[in-house]
Amino acid sequence: MLKTFSKGGVHPPENKFSENVTIKTLDLPKTVSIPISQHIGSPATLVVKRREKVKVGQIIAKTSGFISANIHSSVSGTVTKIDKIMDGTGYKNTAVIIKVAGDDWMENIDKSQELKKDITLNSQQIIDKVLESGIVGLGGATFPSHVKLSIPKGQKADVLIINGVECEPYLTADHRLMLEKGEEMMVGIEILKKALNVKRAIIGIENNKKDAISHIEKLCENYNGSEVVSLQVKYPQGGEKQLIKAVINKEVPSGGLPIHVGAVVHNVGTAFAVYEAVQKNKPLIERVVTVTGKPMEKTYNFIARIGVSLEEIIKASGGVPEDTGKIISGGPMMGKALNTIDVPMTKGTSGILLISKKDAKRRKIEVCIRCAKCVSVCPMGLEPYLLMTLTEKKMFENVEEEKTMDCIECGSCSYICPSNRPLLDYIRLGKSEVGKIMRERR
User: Fold this and answer.
1) Residues of CATH 3.40.50.11540 domain(s) within the chain?
2) What pTM value is reported for the model?
């Protein structure tokens, strides 16, 4: 029997239209806009100025705290402007705008495709290299990866869990990466194991990716301590706590972290980025992004430089179809709708999803019928209908008591609600207000 998590979950249509589309390199853009905050935590601090010439892989903004990440130039050229621009969040944030000239890389970066398996760095050197390279979680959360590798005193990692689930409908970037860069990913996993001083790694992959399961299982034969676990197809299996429950049957306590049950979770894209950083001296300057949707004639998996505009990526995919009603950065469950596509691709951009006018239309909100479907599908065991009601009434102390901060914002409640109630919208609002209360209390 296939493993899965125990509480809640839904089964949206998968719509993995691009699962058989090989990764294509996107042409170099004429300009890029690289935000200095592409991660959870403090924005990086600028170290370049206007008119300065930069190379591919050069640091343009440095970490400003422990939970922060370096930002590197993804192109070579001249810094034409440092300005606040609209990004995928819908807000204006500081970015470095670079006019592209050629493709001149930093001399220490190994651009060859030759696989390099021998790991020469020790644990601390690996963590330092991950920090230096600006690597963050590429599954969407963008948490700085060096922080996860820095185990707090008194804690011990027993197992590394690699997230190859990609449970968001439509998205296939991780699936294609496992198929096309599986060997490099496996070396990346060995590097992460060495950084954490663990012997065991489990790669969780949902059973709708049988070709990836077969491919990675075969590769695991050459890597002691690494194994694949096939998982039942269920959303949101890619959530850290849900994945931990599915593969090692341990439950992260409320308010707790994976390390509290001896686990560290990294995405397959992160493992590949770690390989490139440690073995090739290549910082995180590009990533795989899926461009897909029902209105599109053809779908794509691109590897694209950080900072290229989503408009250019969509243009390379054939442009915006006439029937498009909404464009989402990410997947349909946890992604964010964009009010403009003139925004840069960042480290966290896993997909660009085009929704038809029919599917994009919001249905009329009805009164709650107390069916409790939202409760039954919540993977965190919360009561979404109650959290929405308490937030509407601004009863934020009660919202906190109901453990709203445990919500992983998966959207399962809104998806299943027969009354079309915007449960997640209100829960996010409640979380924001409770967060303010908690900060004031501290």
Assistant:
1) 123-280
2) 0.96
Q: Is 224 helix (H, G, I), strand (E, B) or coil?
A: coil
Assess whether the previous peptide bond of 152 is cis (omega < 30° from 0).
no
Long-range interactions of 252-258: CB distance < 8 A, separation 24+: 254/403, 254/406, 255/405, 255/406, 258/161
Residue 306 CB contacts under 8 Å (≥ 6 apart), including other chains: 32, 34, 38, 72, 74, 284, 285, 286, 287, 344, 345, 346, 347
Sheet (strand 59-62) strand order: 45-46, 59-62, 71-72
Classify 123-280 by CATH class.
Answer: alpha beta
Please tell me whether residue 123 adopts helix, strand or coil conformation.
helix
Q: To which residue do tokens 């209390």 refer? A: 441
Average pLDDT of the chain is 96
Most distant CA atoms of the chain, gap in Å: 64
Residue 440, Cβ density class (10 Å: 0-12 exposed, 13-18 middle, ≥19 buried) = exposed
Burial of 111 by CB count in 10 Å (0-12 exposed, 13-18 middle, 19+ buried)?
Answer: exposed
At 223, give phi and psi (nearest 5°).
-130, 105
Task: Give whole-number Cα distances, 41 to 62, 134, 147, in Å.
Answer: 13, 13, 11
Segment 169-184, tens digit of pLDDT: 999 999 999 999 999 9
Of 390, 422, 421, 427, residue with least CA distance to 406: 427
Q: What is the pLDDT of residues 115-161, one digit of tens each?
A: 999 999 999 999 999 999 999 999 888 999 999 999 999 999 999 99
Is 188 in contact with 178 (CB distance < 8 Å)?
no
Between the alpha carbon of residue 417 and those of residues 11, 15, 414, the distances in Å are 14, 21, 5
Beta strand pairing call for 226-231 and 200-206: parallel
β-sheet with 31-35: strand ranges across: 31-35, 92-100, 77-86, 53-54
